[in-house]
Amino acid sequence: MSVALVAVATSAIWLYLILGRGFFWRAAERDDDLAAPPPAVWPSVTAIVPARNEAEVIAQSLGSLFRQTYPGKFDIVLVNDESSDGTAQVAREAAARTGAVDRLTIMAGSAPPAGWTGKLFAMNLGLRRVEAEPRPPEYVLFTDADIAYAAPDAVERLVKGAEARRAVLVSLMVKLRCESLAERLLVPAFVFFFDKLYPFAWVNDPRSKVAAAAGGCMLVRREALTKAGGLQAIHGALIDDCALAGLLKREGPIWLGLTERVVSLRPYPRFADIRRMVVRSAFAELRYSPWRLGGTLAGMSLIYLAPPLLAVFADGLARWLGLAAWLAMALAFQPMLRLYRRSPLWGIALPAVAAIYTAFTLESAIQYWRGRGGAWKGRYQATASAGGTAG
Which ranges of the chain have pLDDT less than 50? Predict the structure, then answer.
């Protein structure tokens, strides 16, 4: 492909991304959109928290749930997923300090059977527990052990939004930590890329087939999940949140948005920490396909790497088209940078950030082919011999 064709192609792609992909770059879907009148009767909600070696954060996470001012019945089930660091004891002490012992149930998890990923199996154990109650809750809130509900009305807002929309799933992309150099460089782009891959406006449109969710915070209408086949239907999914969204969108509307009211407690102080997080599931996103991997590597190079190379090394029109594409991506990145309170100048660095994520994706494929895919807390949940299912 000639330099001129590369310049035209990358410019055309950015024109499409800016104008034709749900205006994802505006980052306009926020939890403010969930504001609605209260329902006539507040439905019951149970939070299910899978936790594997989360002693450092579980007290803060559970404490934020205990402080929720939800007007209806709101209980919490912690699934202690074979933790070896005292997670369950820390959780009990946190409940005792806040007087919430009667609202917290701690149940022991177990090793996932063949075909299940660890987190989904722990979630399913909690779900089966609440389904066995005399009066099961109308909603379950699947929430990670490293998530804090900073606003006391966060659960109330989720339920209001779900009831007003008659949604079967309402999910929030929680605000990730953005303090270390690695986080400042890579975290805003992580959310930007996710929004580009699954434009939230399309996710929220019942007419669209695009479905996605953010696993840290997912409010699910329990009866809809049962009707869809339960978590058993997606038991081997490594990217469990998007798999759940795809399953539930067949049953009714879903909604996904950004928030500052719910935050991640997980620090990523080093580049290696974010690398492990991305490498765990990047190749799963490509359905373990070498062809999709090749297309992704080529696409990322054309979309993000070509513009600065053209701007620096090309001549004439190709240089100007490269500069225009580079400027377009830098400007498109600005709303996400504002959300994370980062300097606008980080937009210029987006090609370098994209190169880092491209390398992570390639490493994810290599780890999968080596039989070490889906590595998370001592478990390899996607192996080449297993065809990408949990082992």
Answer: 384-391
Q: Which residue is associated with the tokens 């996607």?
A: 382
Q: What pLDDT does 371 receive?
A: 81
Read off the pTM: 0.94
CA–CA distance, 253 with 251 (Å, rounded to integer)? 7
**Residues in contact with 383: Cβ distance below 8 Å, sequence separation at least 6, in sequence order:** 368, 371, 372, 373, 374, 391
- The predicted structure's pLDDT at residue 389: 35
Residue 257 burial (10 A CB sphere; 0-12, 13-18, 19+): buried
Degrees, nearest 5: CA angle 21-25-28: 105
CB–CB of 324/381 below 8 Å? no
Compute the C-alpha angle 64/65/66, nearest 5°.
90
Q: Are 96 and 182 in contact (CB under 8 A)?
A: no
Other CB atoms within 10 Å distance of the CB of residue 298: 10
Query: What are the φ and ψ backbone dihedral angles of 212, each rounded to 5 degrees?
Result: -160, 160
CB 171 within 8 A of CB 245: yes
Q: Which H or E element spans position 46?
A: strand 45-51
Q: Work out the number of other CB atoms within 10 angstroms of the CB of residue 223.
A: 13
pLDDT of residue 377: 64
Q: Looking at residue 43, what DSSP letter applies? A: P
Q: Which helix (H) or strand (E) holds 77?
A: strand 74-80
DSSP state of 344: G
Tokens of 194: 């996710």
Non-local CB neighbours of 78 within 8 Å, separated by 6+ positions:
49, 51, 58, 62, 88, 91, 104, 105, 106, 107, 145
- How far is Cα 256 from Cα 29, in angstroms, rounded to an integer? 7
Per the CB < 8 A criterion, the answer to whether 285 and 198 are in contact is no
Element (H, E) at 261: strand 254-264
**Tokens standing for 96?**
């005792």
